Backbone:
């Protein structure tokens, strides 16, 4: 049957108009895809991937992660090279927020750092006691533990591996070592390469101590040959925040932030475990 007439033409125009309105939000990849920086530890642990998968299922937004250290990511966010970022560098984040260079800073996950090192092996009939030369196993005061590592290092008995980039771990590490006291350059102090796994790799090679984010430890610790020796100090607490760029406002950015900080995103964090806790 031939279709035509003013009524049919009007209906076609209405449908075409509705499609034109819907297409930019849901049809064009540029509108659905966000480039988001993420602290390397959160990516390496697998939580970032799980969040992106569930976010896409719930909202249609596609996250293209750019993993790296918080310091570098926040600099890129300020320049508008990223649509958003998830980082752990509160001092830098707050400074950018006060200058209105980032928006919607919201907490999305809690975790903590661990002090890891060579495992303590008790004396046996065939071998003397070994491992944990600084004797920090079970010490809950992280500054006291680092102080013992410093003394053992100065005696040539221990080594420590520090993060080699401006990551969330490095910023906390810097503050904790400042509380220990002055530290001169010494052969017991080592710096890792880039990436959250680099610290564990070098600490294993040197049988050294290091501070490691719990999610990274859950992912790689069993293969490191090291042991978790000190944890539980409130100064080791970590909170990841998400925030949007001021210079590159993405139409899906607000939706992403609200989802991550809301019921669905927090449910993913809580269910993932591996050292992470929801903030809700």
Residues:
């Amino acid at each position: 049957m031939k279709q035509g007439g003013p009524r049919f033409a009007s209906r076609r125009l209405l449908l075409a108009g509705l499609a034109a309105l819907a297409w930019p939000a849901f049809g064009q990849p540029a509108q659905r895809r966000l480039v988001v920086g993420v602290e390397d530890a959160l990516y390496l642990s697998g939580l970032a991937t799980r969040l992106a998968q569930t976010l896409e299922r719930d909202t249609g937004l596609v996250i293209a992660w750019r993993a790296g250290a918080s310091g570098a990511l926040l600099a890129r966010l300020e320049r508008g090279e990223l649509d958003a970022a998830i980082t752990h560098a509160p001092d830098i984040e707050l400074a950018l927020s006060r200058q209105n260079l980032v928006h919607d800073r919201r907490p999305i996950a809690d975790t903590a750092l661990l002090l890891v090192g060579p495992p303590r092996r008790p004396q046996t009939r065939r071998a003397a006691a070994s491992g944990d030369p600084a004797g920090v196993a079970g010490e809950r005061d992280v500054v006291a533990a680092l102080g013992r590592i410093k003394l053992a290092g100065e005696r040539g008995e221990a080594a420590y591996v520090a993060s080699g980039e401006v990551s969330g771990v490095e910023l906390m590490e810097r503050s904790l070592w400042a509380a220990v006291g002055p530290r001169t350059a010494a052969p017991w102090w080592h710096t890792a390469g880039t990436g959250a796994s680099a610290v564990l790799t070098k600490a294993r090679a040197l049988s050294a101590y290091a501070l490691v984010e719990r999610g990274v430890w859950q992912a790689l610790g069993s293969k490191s040959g090291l042991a978790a020796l000190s944890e539980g100090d409130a100064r080791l607490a970590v909170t990841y925040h998400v925030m949007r760029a001021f210079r590159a406002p993405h139409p899906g950015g607000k939706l992403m932030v609200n989802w991550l900080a809301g019921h669905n995103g927090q449910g993913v964090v809580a269910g993932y475990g591996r050292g992470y806790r929801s903030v809700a």
